[in-house]
User: Which sequence fits this backbone?
């Protein structure tokens, strides 16, 4: 386990001064016993958590750049590796590597227990419901999990879709979803996302469509996306409504 201190140069929402953030590499078991690796960023023990989940072929490194921005929204953050993934931004997916060594499958749906384990871990740390953030296939799983999991207070879903073939009809699975939801994608994906979420009727439902081409998944928030700021503005506006 490693622990470092990060000093943010911008105030955290709800605090007048920049805060020191502790970051630890941690592990916890999924329901089938697979050990999940995650990075945990903590402001203090009074704030709820965001759980930030990566897209296909990626790792927790997907949020290496953006996690500091999520922290400024006033949340502790937990960033897990799921067993369906590989590497991004020089960070290798330790959960996927361990799953492969154990001969466990690593399809998209197989990652659901890892995400649920992260939700449970974050909830147990603070005792407050968490905001679940997903990217691509994990955005779809985030919507599915939030439909039935009472530990989830809201969802941010970046480029969700019907990624599971005949194994899961996501539109049907999330039809009874009631928690606040923010959904976005690239411009090309907007029409399919509109259809996907058309049946859900939470009190707060935001479907943000970028003015530019945008990008797939949470990489829309990366600095190399020319219109990343409009995505961030939409995210902040949604969080302020919770």
Assistant:
């Amino acid at each position: 386990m490693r622990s470092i201190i990060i000093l943010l140069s911008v105030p955290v929402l709800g605090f007048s001064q920049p805060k020191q953030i502790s970051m630890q590499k941690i592990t916890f078991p999924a329901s089938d016993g697979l050990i999940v690796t995650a990075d945990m960023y903590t402001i203090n023990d009074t704030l709820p958590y965001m759980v930030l989940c990566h897209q296909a072929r990626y790792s927790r490194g997907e949020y290496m750049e953006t996690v500091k921005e999520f922290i400024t929204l006033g949340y502790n953050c937990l960033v897990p590796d799921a067993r369906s993934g590989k590497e991004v931004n020089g960070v290798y997916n330790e959960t996927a590597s361990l799953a492969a060594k154990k001969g466990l499958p690593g399809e998209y749906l197989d990652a659901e227990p890892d995400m649920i384990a992260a939700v449970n871990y974050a909830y147990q740390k603070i005792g407050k419901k968490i905001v679940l953030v997903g990217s691509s296939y994990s955005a779809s799983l985030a919507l599915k999990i939030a439909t039935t999991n009472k530990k989830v207070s809201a969802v941010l879903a970046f480029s969700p879709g019907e990624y599971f073939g005949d194994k899961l009809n996501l539109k049907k699975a999330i039809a009874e979803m009631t928690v606040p939801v923010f959904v976005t994608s690239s411009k090309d994906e907007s029409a399919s996302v509109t259809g996907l979420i058309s049946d859900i009727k939470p009190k707060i439902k935001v479907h943000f469509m970028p003015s530019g081409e945008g990008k797939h998944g949470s990489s829309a928030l990366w600095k190399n996306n020319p219109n990343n700021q409009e995505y961030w503005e939409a995210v902040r506006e949604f969080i302020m409504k919770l």
Remarks:
- The chain has one domain: 23-241.
- The chain has a mean pLDDT of 94.
- The CA atoms of residues 3 and 185 lie 34 Å apart.
